[in-house]
Amino acid sequence: MFKKILFLCLLPSCFASCVPQKDFMITNEFVESKITKRKNIGKTYTYDTVLSEEDKKYFAKKLDVSQDEILNEKLYNFIKSWEGTKYVYGGETRSGIDCSALMQYLYSYVYDKELPRTAVEMSLDSRIELFKPHGKLREGDLVFFRITEEKIISHVGIYLKNNKFFAANQYGGVEIVSLKKGYWKKNFMAAGRFKQ
Predict the structure, then answer these.
(1) What integer pLDDT is reported at residue 40 of this predicted model?
(2) Of 13, 31, 99, 146, most Cβ neighbours within 10 A?
C-alpha cells in the first residue's frame, strides 16, 4: 500500500523535465520576476563583444575545427560566460541552471527567439521542426534526449560543430560534450530547428 501511495505522489514529477515546480503555478508576479531576471542577466553580461583570438583558439581546439570556423561570436561569448556553471534542476541563475533554462537564455540572447520552459515543450513547439540528423546537423540546432525511464524528451542542448553540443548536464554542469559519447549517443532522440 505504501508503495502505491509513494508512486502516486511521485508520478507528477516524472512528467517534468528540467523545470522548477513553481512553473506549474505561473502568476503575474512570477512572470515579472523572470523578465527582471533576464534583463539583469543581459545587463551584467554581454555576448556581442569581439571574441579574442585566444578564445577562438580555445573553441577551435575544443570542437576540433579550424579557428576560421568559429564565426558566431555572440554564441561563443555566451558559451564562454556560462561554461562551468553547475547544474541545478529547476535552476535559472549563474549559481545553478538546468538544461532548458540555459537554452531559453541562449536562444533569447543569441538568436532573439523565445523558447518554452521545458525540453519536452520545446520538442512539441509548432515552430520547431524535428528531424533525424543523418549528417544534416548544423550550428544552432537543438538536440533532444530521453534520459529518464519515461518515454518523453527530458534533456536539451544546442549543436555546435563536429558532433559536439553545449548543454547543462546533471553530472558535468554547463559544458561542451560529444554526441558520439556512448551515453549521449544511446539517449539521443532527435534534432530540432526553427522552421524558415
Answers:
(1) 37
(2) 99
